[in-house]
Amino acid sequence: MNGYFKITLQGLVLFIFFNIILTGCTQSSEAFLKKGREMMQAQKFSEALPYLNQAIEKDVENSEAFNARAVTYFELKKYQEALLDYEQAIRLNPESYKPYYNRAQVRLALNDMSNALADSDKAITLQPDSSDLYTNRAFIYHKTGKIREALADFDKAILLAPSDANAYYNRGVFRFELQDLKGSITDFAKAAELDRKMAKAYYSLGLAHLSAQNKEQGCISLKQANRLGHQAAKQAVTQYCGETQ
Known about the structure:
Elements: H1 2-41, H2 45-58, H3 63-75, H4 79-92, H5 98-109, H6 113-126, H7 131-143, H8 147-160, H9 165-177, H10 181-194, H11 199-211, H12 215-227, H13 233-241
Helix pairs in contact: 1-2, 1-3, 2-3, 3-4, 3-5, 4-5, 5-6, 6-7, 7-8, 8-9, 9-10, 10-11, 11-12, 12-13
């Protein structure tokens, strides 16, 4: 009985010991990942890479670390390395939409439209309530000339995020390119209403009004964009409104 208890106790000690080691490794991986993400937030991608390498070395099953390193590679324009890391992130966590969404950006940069669209479709299947995913796919549809599908995705993005100024702004840009001036004016005005500090919304609204021969409204919007610091607004006010700001 004593011998059994001794063996069991030794086994328990060993279990606790190895559990502490494993937990420590996981925490160390997460600590490196956290530091890497801080560097990424600061747009210091070259500095982020060593931390993310360490995160993966400490835990080769950390799918978030692979995803983060892939994003870093993408920002550094190392597209093939990014693709490899996204594949690993997907293998480790196939139910996460993030690596599919992010890999679509790489494939878009490589002009691989069919696979970019496939990744976007998969991301939406996994996370159907994210407005950003529909906006992303809308841009891909736009690049491939699928106008109706692009508009449907912009509409879906707004339906999911009706208070998101960027959702309206993005659809407004698309409508403006299609010369749907009435629709673009409506969207830019809504974006400006939702975010009074969105200079690009006022600037685009001004240009849309000018294109629709609404000079007075156009100049009002351009002047507001200039007050908010939009870089091109000052020249536009001078050119179209006959005033020096």
